[in-house]
């Protein structure tokens, strides 16, 4: 939905004709870069933006003023002054666990832009699949982009579907995604996870590993097969990052750094800190900075690294305290693969309960180093865009409200406006989760889940983050 604007002044009576594209638009440098003023109080529509991005968001608002099924018409006389509260309004889309064709990614980009979100974090590689071609390393896609089968539901059940799964993006594909997103004022931040979550790459090139000679991982969870950190392997990582820098214009380049077992390393955790420093130094030669999960704080993250704080709410505060910019994405508040209710027909219910209201009530830490927040969509249990839409919406509508609108929020007011917005999602053909609950065909009895209690998860997180305190 359109996030609640900062200021709305309605005229006493009358309407003004609107034909999108015919508005009188101008750049006003005195406005915030993403801010705008939309004035429909006279006989024509006036739009001022702090930049082209501001004009874009103003046009999104103008679009919402029209009836759901109209591309032009009469709107009430109103003046809206608006600007986002946070500069990073992001969504992670995991295309490693389940590959998403280019046209589906572009469709998802449109839905983010429709909700005034401005960062798409693409999780491109993992143990279960490598989705990006790299010059000179053809087996990454010939071998690493395919797995023999996929798990059905939570890994505790040990069920598999027996069907091969795979796919990858060519360089042209990725350039198209980046350009399409840029036209909608969305920055695509790529992530190639390293030095852990690398079994797909090691399956393609066993010399990158520590003696493992096996296939791309078919089960969910974390592989203990990690990079060997020899000079040749470090050079491989630099080549991968060079190609990523050639394709993506983002200042931040994701290198993951999360969930990296050390059983194959003689030196333990300090080796990962040295590895991260090496990659950060190389990215700096390209004018880029590291974007990594909060695990890279252990042992000291490189200067200038931006931290994606996911293991609960505490790591964001820790990262800011030691001087790092932060994107807050706590799993218990913003992981959209987590179950939406206790209804028995919720598809593959995993993780802690994360309702629409839970997302709406989330507030990022109040610290100047917190750039904003990011909702993460991990796709182990989402094999299609329709499944992604079901898990994402309308919770992403609530997230957009948090990121753009004022800190003071009222769930009843949000809910009243959401009802109208869902009609727009209907018109767009979005497979959102109905507010009344899942429909019978949303259930996945063949892919059972593993619900968790919040108390159990918080206890796990305290143990997981002990090395940061």
TrEMBL record:
Reactions listed under catalytic activity: Hydrolysis of terminal non-reducing N-acetyl-D-hexosamine residues in N-acetyl-beta-D-hexosaminides
UniProt EC number: 3.2.1.52
GO molecular function: beta-N-acetylhexosaminidase activity
GO terms classed as biological process: carbohydrate metabolic process; glycosaminoglycan metabolic process
Record-annotated Glycoside hydrolase family 20 catalytic domain positions: 86-405
Active site: 259 (proton donor)
Entry GO terms, CC: membrane
All residue ranges annotated as the Beta-hexosaminidase bacterial type N-terminal domain in the record: 28-83
Primary enzyme class: hydrolase
Keywords for this protein: Glycosidase, Hydrolase
Annotated family: Belongs to the glycosyl hydrolase 20 family.
Protein name as it appears in the record: beta-N-acetylhexosaminidase
């Amino acid at each position: 939905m359109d996030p609640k604007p900062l200021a709305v002044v309605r005229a006493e009576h009358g309407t003004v004709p609107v034909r999108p594209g015919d508005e009188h638009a101008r750049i006003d440098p005195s406005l915030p870069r993403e801010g705008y003023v939309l004035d429909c109080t006279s006989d024509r529509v006036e739009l001022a933006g702090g930049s082209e991005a501001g004009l874009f968001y103003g046009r999104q608002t103008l679009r919402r003023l029209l009836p759901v099924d109209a591309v032009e018409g009469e709107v009430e006389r109103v003046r809206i002054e608006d600007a986002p509260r946070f500069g990073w309004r992001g969504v992670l889309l995991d295309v490693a666990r389940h590959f998403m064709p280019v046209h589906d990614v572009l469709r998802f980009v449109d839905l983010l832009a429709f909700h005034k979100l401005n960062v798409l974090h693409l999780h491109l590689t993992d143990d279960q699949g490598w989705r990006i071609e790299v010059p000179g390393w053809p087996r990454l896609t010939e071998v690493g982009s395919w797995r023999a089968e996929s798990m059905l539901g939570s890994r505790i059940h040990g069920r598999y579907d027996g069907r091969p799964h795979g796919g990858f993006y060519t360089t042209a594909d990725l350039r198209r995604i980046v350009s399409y997103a840029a036209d909608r004022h969305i920055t695509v931040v790529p992530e190639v996870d390293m030095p852990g979550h690398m079994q797909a790459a090691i399956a393609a090139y066993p010399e990158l590993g520590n003696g493992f000679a096996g296939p791309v991982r078919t089960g969910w969870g974390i592989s203990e097969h990690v990079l060997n950190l020899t000079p040749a392997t470090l050079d491989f990582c630099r080549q991968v990052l060079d190609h990523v820098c050639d394709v993506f214009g983002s200042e931040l380049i994701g290198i993951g750094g999360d969930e990296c077992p050390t059983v194959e390393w003689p030196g333990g955790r300090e080796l990962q800190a040295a590895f991260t420093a090496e990659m950060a130094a190389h990215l700096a030669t390209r004018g880029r900075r590291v974007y990594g999960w909060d695990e890279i704080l252990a042992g000291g993250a490189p200067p200038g690294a931006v931290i994606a704080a996911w293991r609960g709410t505490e790591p964001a505060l820790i990262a800011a305290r030691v001087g790092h910019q932060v994107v807050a994405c706590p799993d218990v508040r913003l992981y959209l693969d987590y179950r939406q209710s206790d209804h028995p027909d919720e598809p593959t219910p995993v993780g802690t309960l994360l309702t629409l209201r839970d997302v709406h009530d989330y507030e990022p830490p109040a610290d100047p180093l917190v750039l904003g927040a990011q909702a993460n969509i991990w796709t182990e249990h989402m094999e299609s865009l329709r499944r992604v839409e079901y898990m994402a919406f309308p919770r992403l509508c609530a997230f957009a409200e948090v990121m753009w609108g004022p800190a003071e929020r009222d769930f009843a007011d949000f809910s009243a406006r959401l009802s109208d917005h869902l009609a727009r999602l209907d018109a767009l053909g979005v497979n959102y989760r109905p507010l009344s609950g899942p429909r019978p065909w949303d259930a996945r009895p063949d892919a059972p889940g593993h619900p968790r209690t919040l108390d159990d998860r918080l206890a796990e997180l305290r143990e997981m983050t002990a090395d940061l305190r």
